[in-house]
Amino acid sequence: MADLGRLTGRNFLVIGRAGMDLYADPPGTRIEEASRFVAHLGGSSANIAVALVRQGCRAWLLTRVSDDAVGRFCLSQLDAYGVDRSLVRSEGGEARNSLAVVETRIENCQSVIYRNGAADFAMTASDVEAVDYAGFSALVTTGTVLAAEPSRSAAFRAFDLARAAGVPLVFDVDYRPYSWPSAAVAAETCSRAAALCDVIVGNDVEFGLMAGHPDRGLEKARNLIADGAQTVIYKMGEKGAVTLTRDGEFATGIFPTEALKPTGAGDSFLGAFLAALALGLPLRTAVLRGSAAAAMVVARVGCAPAMPDVSELDAFLATHPGPSA
Length: 325
Prior knowledge:
Layout: E1 11-15, E2 19-24, E3 37-42, H1 44-54, E4 58-66, H2 69-81, E5 84-91, E6 98-102, E7 111-114, H3 125-129, E8 138-142, H4 151-164, E9 169-172, H5 183-194, E10 199-203, H6 204-211, H7 217-226, E11 231-235, E12 241-245, E13 248-252, H8 265-278, H9 283-297, H10 310-319
Parallel strand pairs: 1-4, 1-8, 2-6, 4-5, 8-9, 9-10, 10-11
Antiparallel strand pairs: 2-3, 6-7, 11-12, 12-13
Helix pairs in contact: 1-8, 6-7, 8-9
């Protein structure tokens, strides 16, 4: 496995989708009752890249977007957030960009996702083979990248090239059932990816999926460590998380917050967590910074625009009580 000390270079290559999120406005409005919507950058990988940049790192996004106005919106937003999109390609024809219509509601929050003919799934081996992996501190990807071809094969090719260059692999399981042909295919494919990676992050449902049984998720996380992973974070929602390494395990809680919505927490967690490791902070501190960032994002409108910067995260940690048990 790769040397995680390389993360201190703070140059992250993130593979996966960028999309447009349309939020019913004002907050609290149900989609079917809305008369206006506010557009923001979305997509799990784009959100992670934004989170990294907000935390003082550099991030490159590798994906494809549709060759139309929505795709150009995503490119413009990536520029605005400071994410390098020199590795993003436009896909023409009938390809369409990821689109999410979302509510800012904590209870019965509706999120309608459009992924028909998704442009990001058109990423090919030629896209990932054009990258010089030696210049990156880590490769970060999510399970959504693996849900369809040719993106799936391209991502595994990127894994091989990054590993050959000594680049650590970070995998957020990010299981979205609507993107996959079946849960069985998702379980097999995500397990294959996790077995190759140095850092794996997911929730109890996602680890249960890979384990083949919802009650065996933590066992799966422990098996990944035994098989060579360096860090596994097993998230349990309001119950906090268990972080596993070769040296042992520790549990952490969550930061209390007045949540407006459930979306964006995982992307914010991963960005702040990796940025903290890139600063050389202890693992527990990195997990707590990720948890604090997640708490901040669910209390704000949007995902990408809700990602805290370093000063905001520091201020939150200075003024909020420690995470609940």
